[in-house]
Amino acid sequence: MRNRRTTALLSVLLAASLAAVATPAPAQAEPAAVTAQTEPNQVHGLTVVQGDGYATLGWTPVDGATDYQIERTPVAVDDSATGPSVITGVWRPNRQINNSSPTFADAGFNPGARFQWRVRARFGTTEQPYSEPVSGTTSAPWGDPNVPGENLRTQWETTLAAQYTSDVDEYAYTAAIDELSDRVRVTEIGKTALGRPINMFVIGYPTPPATPEAVAATSPLMVNCNVHGNEPGDREGCLIMARQLAFSNDPRTLDLLSHTTVLIVPTINGDGRAANTRGNSTGQDLNRDYSLIRQPETFALMQMLRDYRPVAGYDGHEFGNSSAGDLPMLPPRHQNVAQSIFDESQHMIEGHMYTQGARDGWWPCPYGCNGGGNVGLSEETILRNTLGLKNVVNSLLELRSSGGTTRPDEGNTANNRRRKAYSALWTFNQFLDYHRANLKEITSARADAITFQVSNTGRIVFRGSRPIEAHPAPHPGEAPPPLDAPQPDRILNDAPCAYKLTEEQYHGARTDGPAGQRTTVAQRLAAHGWKVVKVADGYVVPLAQPERGLIPLLLDGQAVEKMVDAERLYPTVTGQHSGQLVVSGVTCLRDATVTGPVRVRPGAALIATGSSIIGPVDASGAAGVFLTDSAVEGPVRIAETSGPVVVVDATVTGPVEVSDNRGDAPLVAASTVTGPLHCGGNASAPVDLGLGNSVQGPKTGQCASL
Amino acid sequence: MDQPVNPPPPRSLPRLRRPARRHHPRRRLVALAGVALSLVLTGCSGVEPRAAAGGTAAPAAAVVSGPLCDLLPSGSDPGNPASLAGQPAEAALQWLPVLTTFEAAVRASGLAADLRGGSGLTILAPTDDAFAAKFSEDTLDQLLLVDKDKLRGLLREHLVAGSLSLSDMVAAGQVTTLAGTRLTVTGRETSARLADRADTVCADYRVANARIHLINRVLGDLPTTARADGHRAH
I want to staple A32 with a disulfide (CB 3.0 to 4.6 A). Which of A132, A269, A655, B44 is the partner? Predict the structure, then answer.
């Protein structure tokens, strides 16, 4: 948040007063062409298009211009000035990816007010003549004041941004939207440490799907609006967007909501918001806790992710860097994040946001943009990275709160708040549009990521980021975040097959988290949605599951911020194995070839990755069965398993039967079955996480739709 | 919350920050090269009462002065100086958008009631920018959540007995805070300099039994913990 500045204002005040010069009365908003003569290097073709809380200025570039200044003057209906002119910003070539059509999003005004704008070029510090003025009335806050629902306003809106929306007002506003819109269901996903509800808008058209599983089937997207209590700008944007989605009948909104479900969590940190603290009521920075989930707030969000399974996300913040662009964004960089998720997240930022920013005049850029400091790194405790490790395409968003060389230095005033909140609203709406237009690419990236993760291949990196290269000049990304390559002692080349926890590690009382609200490792792993196999002498967490990249970061002794120091289990069968394989205890196959039948004994666990089994696989009453990135020639029967069943990216030549399993929903996904697939009698119907399967024979029973 | 809120209807008129300049209504100011990016403030804030946007003259009590005043609620906006005149200090603080840290600190400290009592009070309230320049986010959270005694001590460095106007303080030449620190006061055009270290940036909010002066530095002797580059981790 914010930065210093107020002393500068004094000297500016003096200087400006001395420098006041008369200028001609502003012209009406007639086309510039009617002006008889033009001056050399004058900006031409100025256009102003009104958006929600901002106005996009566009103009024809002037040859030789170094930058441009944008001037705004409040005017009456007859376009006479009603207040002083201000320079509201400077356009620089690094602002947008195409310099042939400069645009500038002017914001930081009371929506609905009328202004006149002019733009002038500068050659170095030498100012050129201003353009002809263009005036216009800005868009009033969204929603017809006479239409119920549309006429709802937040505290931030009704106080003209003098106050942020309080927790009490947020709950009332949220409840009103919930009551008045069929499209919205507000659900409480948890409570803060002090007991404040953590609400989530679930928005779909004509109504949102009834259950989390049904929502998950729509490939939903999520905005986490406010984790740091003293960075509330994104939350105000979210609350306005929720109203638009709930009540707008424009074709775009109806189209968006007809194709997916929008999940908006306005305030995960209600205690911090009320106290104006970054952390929660215990002082814990929640954006350093999303993997460890020691706190009830982060715990609740991970449970929500497990149940609703958004495929894409944005995480809202504010940032005080005075030289940054408007909207620093950053993808999940941790090297354990699947390449496809990183690439798609980068595409969302550089491919979409940079392009749309150049169209609408906003300035997205990588985290820091310019001198961002040693931040934006690989901590898996940060939601951006946690989401990536959960195979969610996503970005962090910063709202630039400080003034500086390209934005006015206005402190934490109403206009500064408006610029931030409406730039967040723009970004989140762009995010919805990206999801709508690129859902196939997003889900494809997710499928690739999940199949990669369950294969348990490649090294484990405990800390270390993927590099983000500078975007070619002129560009909004000339100064990318630090390289943050993994140090040698943060790399584990030989990944284990699984981690084994003792009873004490798994169920023992913890000392971390708020007193009275502490959770066990068992509860936390369940909140993450991980598959855990209970064996005779402990609990086994195989890496052959979708969140493979996150598991070692919490369970390995070498991890930087681990939950426990669990025992590494390495493969027990590699290479060739001829004859029958009888699995007892925990048997781990990696890159093995078994020529013969595999029989998993009751109470045993099979974890097979990258293997070939030439023969049938029969597991009856096993503790857990994991079959990923493997081929089986012969029938596969997995029945009466007491724990997890995972069959992902498997190729089975023969029939597959998954029946009467008693654990959580078996995961059967991205597999090829040359034969029938039958599922029946499972305590929870098998799921495919939206990845589907390729089955030549009939799909029947609980697997009919997989 | 079971009942929907019925917020007041939005204002129908465009917001007018200040009336047109009387003598040169068709003139505008052109920004100077070199200061172009800063807001150009033209008024002589505080030397005369400003008319409210609706045409109703604000009471003389609503005169505030300083370079930041024009960026704060004015005219008939919610939170304008006249509207705060009868409010308790802790309520008035909630309407000054640049005081969110100070306002939260007052609430966290438990000193809110003290702001009302006694024979008047002068509140030297550092802006959010001032706090951000002084303390790291960790320090701020620690002060607001844990180190309440230290926080109260810090706040007392910003409180002076008696409801003193800017001109009262300048005339006195010095004031003593409730923490016992003596601050020199030097008058400037529409502001004052305190302890040769902080300037008032919008002074003379009259509230119930107190004056609030916004200042641009944190007073007291707590160590500075803000990062020099001003960057904060996300």
Answer: A132
Residue A413 contacts B where some CB pair is shorter than 8 Å: yes
User: b/e per residue, A58-71, with b = 16+ CB within 10 A?
Assistant: bbebbeebebbbbb
CB contact, 8 Å: A249 with chain B?
no
Q: Hey, which residues does A678 pair with through a beta bridge?
A: A657, A700
Inter-chain contact A414–B73, Cβ cutoff 8 Å?
yes
Contact predicate A43/A59, CB 8 Å: yes
Strands A114-123, A67-74: pairing is antiparallel
Would you say residue A526 has pLDDT above 70? yes
A412·B128 Cβ contact <8 A:
yes
Please state, in angstroms and rounded to a whole number, the distance separating the CA atoms of residues A17 and A83.
Answer: 14
- Both structure tokens of B138: 């960790």
With 0-12 CB in 10 A as exposed, 13-18 as middle and 19+ as buried, what is B79? buried
DSSP string, A173-241: HHHHHHHH-TTEEEEEEEE-TT--EEEEEEE-SSS--SSHHHHHTT--EEEE--SSTT-THHHHHHHHH
Concatenating the DSSP letter of every residue in A446-488 gives HHHHHHHHHTT-S-EESS-B---PPPPSSSS-SSPPP--PPPG
Asked whether A411 and B128 are in contact (CB, 8 A), the reply is: yes
Interface residue B17 vs chain A (CB under 8 A): yes
The amino acid that residue A667 corresponds to is L
Q: How does pLDDT run across A189-221, given as a tens digit for each residue? A: 999 999 999 999 999 999 999 999 999 999 999
B chain contacts of residue A372, beta-carbon cutoff 8 Å? 231
Which is higher by pLDDT, A328 or A555? A555
* Cβ B219 vs Cβ B198: under 8 Å: yes
Nearest CA in chain A to B109: A275
**Contact between A588 and A573 (Cβ < 8 Å):** yes
What are the residues whose beta carbons fall under 8 Å from the beta carbon of A151, sequence distance 6 or more? A143, A144, A145, B7, B9
Amino acid at B216: N
Q: Identify the closest residue of chain B to A169 by CA–CA distance.
A: B5
Residues of A in contact with B108 (CB under 8 A): 275
Residues A145-161: tens digit of each pLDDT: 999 999 999 999 999 99
Residues of B in contact with A8 (CB under 8 A): 38
Which residue from A402, A394, A418, A410 is spatially nearest to A368, judged by alpha carbons?
A402
Say what the pLDDT of residue A368 is: 63
- Give tens-digit pLDDT for B86-127: 999 999 999 999 999 999 999 999 998 888 877 899 999 999
Report the DSSP beta bridge partners of residue A186: A201
H helices present in A406-455, as ranges: 414-454
CA distance linking residue B167 with residue B173, whole number of Å: 10
Can you tell me the ipTM of this complex?
Answer: 0.90
Q: Which residues neighbour A634 within 8 Å (Cβ) at sequence distance 6 or greater? A: A597, A613, A614, A615, A616, A617, A652, A653, A654
End-to-end Cα, chain B, rounded Å: 32
What tokens appear for A584 in the block?
Answer: 């007892």
Residue A58 parent element (H or E) = strand A54-60
Strand residue runs (E) in A476-557: 491-492, 498-501, 533-535, 538-542
A102 contacts A66 by C-beta, under 8 angstroms? no
**Interface contact flag, B100 A112, Cβ < 8 Å:** no
Mean pLDDT of A496-504: 98
Answer yes or no: do B229 and A163 touch at CB < 8 A.
no
- pLDDT bin (cut points 50, 70, 90) of residue B31 is very low
CB A158 to CB B8 under 8 A? yes
CATH class of B61-215: mainly beta
Type of residue at A21: V
Locate the domains of chain B by residue range. 61-215
How many contacts, defined by CB atoms under 8 Å, are there between A and B?
289
Confidence at residue A471, expressed as pLDDT on a 0 to 100 scale: 85
